[in-house]
TrEMBL record:
It comes from Pseudaquabacterium pictum. GO terms for molecular function: hydrolase activity; monooxygenase activity. Transmembrane segments: none annotated. Belongs to the FAD-binding monooxygenase family. This is Steroid monooxygenase.
Amino acid sequence: MADSSATAGGARAADVDVVVVGAGFAGLYLLHKLRGLGFRVQVLETADDVGGTWYWNRYPGARCDIPTTDYTYSFDPALETAWTWSEKYATQPEILRYAQFVADRYDLRRDIQFNTKVEAAHWDAAANRWRIRTSTDAKLSAQHLVMASGCLSVPKTPDIPGAGRFQGPVYSTGRWPHQGVDFTGQRVAVIGTGSSGIQSIPLIAEQAAQLTVFQRTPNYSIPAGNGPVAPERRAPLEANRDAYRLAAKWSRAGVPSEPTQIYGRYSPPDVHAERFEAAWKTGELIPILGVFADQILFPDSNAIVAGKVREKIRAVVHNPETAELLSPKDHHFGTKRPCLDTGYYQTYNRPNVRLVDLRRQPITSITETGIDVGGESMRFDAIVYATGFDAMTGAIVAVDITGRDGVTLKGKWAAGPITYLGLMSVGFPNFFMVTGPGSPSVLSNMMVSIEQHVDWISDCLVRLRSDGLSTIEPTPQAEAGWMQHSQDCAAITLFPSADSWYMGANVPGKPRVFLPYVGGVDAYRKACDEVVARGDLGLRRS
Ligand code: FAD
Ligand code: N01
């Protein structure tokens, strides 16, 4: 292993075993794990601190939507007992503090170069190494390159006419100012009603003089019922933490739960009502996504759940016309990620809040002073974009990654990402992705999926090293097989019918492909384990 040395600019020029892109939860655990296995690791991170998602998304109301006792690392039992979450769904500042606590506890920052964006990575076939170029001009080389660059880390560029014209402050939920924003007395526009919009709108409405929400597609949202961690959630963890975490690893979505065998289409209305109400009361996504075994497969079963959510919306929103506008009808429940909220629908009963339906009146243009819509010129003091991300592939293809024979990853993925298990891609030796497209990723509790990928990649590198080999890459047959399986799994569900970011449909020009693997965390883990058990099945090592 070669040495690293400081350059005049303070940036390090290094030859390391592994370069990791990103210091969110994936990058932090990778660094800790690989370092413990004796690898020399350099993490490169655009931000000036750790945390990833929880570093960038500082908008009011930002929280997790998987209960925090589940959305937590499990790799070290001592870490688990050293940290206590204060709420069922912790706030962004608390989750960021947790990431910082982890970085301090394992002394991770000394191998993270902050303020450094990875711009390019080229495979040097003669040396069997990745040559990496960054924004600091530091040149690194590494035997392995791991993209821990995040699935929701590249905010979408506003694709709205005149977006650059507005003269007042413009905010993006995914890049919120660290010092916070005071909207007191202001006329504020929020564009977008996905999870980020739905979490921030109630709090912005409380502060602003007037809030106008620009909605293109209404989303389904469930009240989170936030508060202290419920005793019934704490109890199984405290009774047997190992068993609880093991159950999460072998569950469908990374949170222990018993999937139902009840089909909506074959059960009577009283069962529908009882099951829906029980799920609704939990204030959790996984129960409401699993009211019926067939709700993501058949429109008639799905319609039972969707209809009942719409009834809940109508019961809260006083103005019937507004309630109708807020009721999703253009996509099946769960085919876009549903939201968890605190007082979202109630916000539309406030006198200072107005909803603009962009389906009826599209934005003509953003102007110097506001937004022109449907023949009306509205004036604003601030505009907030809650318009989402170039999800799953955005951060990966933003880096100019060139593999064997000059093939670029962006070129190979022009019609959609092609991977083996969402972990690797043919033509790109010693290249790995954490929670990449083709893995359960964003359809799961990401902490469980991150840990599984980090463990799998680490074990893979250890096997390679102990076998005295230097490169690993999937075979074309294995990759094609996984792609077929992954797309087949999605095709039997309702997911592909929606214009969701899961389908890449939110970014103009992005290929329409279902990005994550829908077969479940449990089935996926079994497939990954089988690859190892069968002597690195589908992988070519040399
Ligand atoms: P990230 O946290 O996105 O970190 C990636 C890092 O890579 C970033 O810091 C980024 O700056 C850096 N990076 C990217 N490209 C480069 C480059 N070229 N050079 C250098 N650095 C680079 N998931 C859940 O399971 N449950 C939840 O409740 C949940 N809540 C969420 C709430 C919000 C607001 C958002 C946006 C996402 C949420 N997610 C949730 C998904 C969340 O992204 C993951 O849970 C998790 O935090 C991802 O960790 P990561 O390390 O893989 O990626
Ligand atoms: O982004 P989104 P997000 N003109 O893409 C609208 C996670 N997350 O940041 O649906 C007008 O969901 C767009 O409309 P449409 C979670 O996984 C979790 O909110 O494309 N409107 C939509 O309403 C989540 O799913 C939490 O028609 C435009 C909105 O903007 C993912 O991150 C919190 C538009 C974007 O919604 C992304 O969530 C936050 C345009 N040109 C995020 N372009 C938790 O609660 C887009 N829109 C844990």
